[in-house]
Amino acid sequence: MRALMSVVPGGPETLEWVDIGPPTVGKGEIRVSVRAAGLNATDLLMMRDRYQDKVARPYSPGGEIAGVVEELGAGVHDLAVGDRVVAILGSGGLREEVLLRSSDAILIPDGVSYEEASVLPIAYASALHALEDRARLAHGERVLVLGASAGIGLASVQIATRMGAEVVAACSTAEKVEIAMAEGAVRGLVYGEGAQSADRHELRRLFADVVGADGADVVVDPVSGSLADPAARAMRTGGRFVLVGFAGGVGSVPSNVVLVKRAEIVGSALGEHLKDHPEHLRTLLGQLFEWCVEGTLRPSVTSVIPLCEAVSGLDLLDRRAITGKVVVRLGE
C-alpha cells in the first residue's frame, strides 16, 4: 500500500512516497481502511522534531483518522467488520490502512461524514476540553479567542458559541475575522501579521477597545508570542487564561496583571491529558457527535484533498494559508 513518510527532519518538502506491505493484525487490534485524515499543526512540529513526543523514523504524519473496520484481531468483540470508526493515532494516518487497538476506536454515528469525523479528535476535542474542563465556561460569559480562523481557534469560536458564550475573535487579517464571525463571533479585531503587526502598546489598546471595558471572562490562546501580553490585559478580574498552543512562539503573560486581576493561568494540552485519562476522549467526542447529529455544530472542513496531494495540504498549513481544517480523503 502507499504511504507518505517522514524519513528526515524537515518541512513538507522532505516527505517521500513509499510502498509498504499491508499491516498484520495482532491480538486486541483492528485493521482500518483510512477514509479521511485530518491535518494539524502537530504534524508539522513532529516532522521538524519540535514536538514533545518524538516518533522514530520512518513514519507517516497524520494524527487523526476516520475509516472503516476491515479486520478484527483475536479477542476483539466490541466492534464488527464494516463499522465506521474514528481515532487519534498521534502519527501514521497518511497511508491507506492502519492498525489500531480496538479500545482506541470510537464509533462514528450516522449523519456524520468521514471528513467531519476526522477533524474532531484533535482540534475540536482540544477546544471542548479547553473551554469546558479547563476554563469552566459558563453560559453568557465573554470569550476572547486568538488565531480564531483556523484549527483549535475556529473550533473554539464554534464551540464557545454553541455553549452560549459571547465570542470576540482576534485574527491576523480582516478576511479571517469575517470567517470567525460567520461561525458565531460577535465582533473581532485584526492584530496583523509579520511587518504589518501592531506594536506592543497598539496591541494593548486594540485588545482593550474591542474586548470591552468589562474584559473577557476567558481567553483561549493557541498563538501566544506577542499576543499573550495584550490578551491577558484584556481579561476581567478573576478571568481565566487558557493556553492551548504557541504557534506564534513562546509568549510572556505579565505576572503583575495576573496578580492584580487575580486571574487564573492554565495550560490545556489534550494529548497530555489523554495519557492519564484516555477514556475522556469518548466523553468529548460523544458531546461533539451529539451536536453534529442535531445540527448545532458543523466542523469547518474548508479543504478536502486526495492522498496524492497531501504534501500540498501540509504546505498550506505550514504557510498558514488555510482557514478551518484541511482533510486528506482516501478510498472510495
Automatic annotation (TrEMBL):
<dbReference type="InterPro" id="IPR013154">
    <property type="entry name" value="ADH-like_N"/>
</dbReference>
<dbReference type="Pfam" id="PF00107">
    <property type="entry name" value="ADH_zinc_N"/>
</dbReference>
<dbReference type="InterPro" id="IPR051397">
    <property type="entry name" value="Zn-ADH-like_protein"/>
</dbReference>
<dbReference type="Pfam" id="PF08240">
    <property type="entry name" value="ADH_N"/>
</dbReference>
<feature type="domain" description="Enoyl reductase (ER)">
    <location>
        <begin position="10"/>
        <end position="328"/>
    </location>
</feature>
<keyword id="KW-0560">Oxidoreductase</keyword>
<protein>
    <submittedName>
        <fullName>NADPH2:quinone reductase</fullName>
        <ecNumber>1.6.5.5</ecNumber>
    </submittedName>
</protein>
<dbReference type="InterPro" id="IPR036291">
    <property type="entry name" value="NAD(P)-bd_dom_sf"/>
</dbReference>
<dbReference type="InterPro" id="IPR020843">
    <property type="entry name" value="ER"/>
</dbReference>
<dbReference type="InterPro" id="IPR011032">
    <property type="entry name" value="GroES-like_sf"/>
</dbReference>
<dbReference type="GO" id="GO:0003960">
    <property type="term" value="F:quinone reductase (NADPH) activity"/>
</dbReference>
<dbReference type="InterPro" id="IPR013149">
    <property type="entry name" value="ADH-like_C"/>
</dbReference>
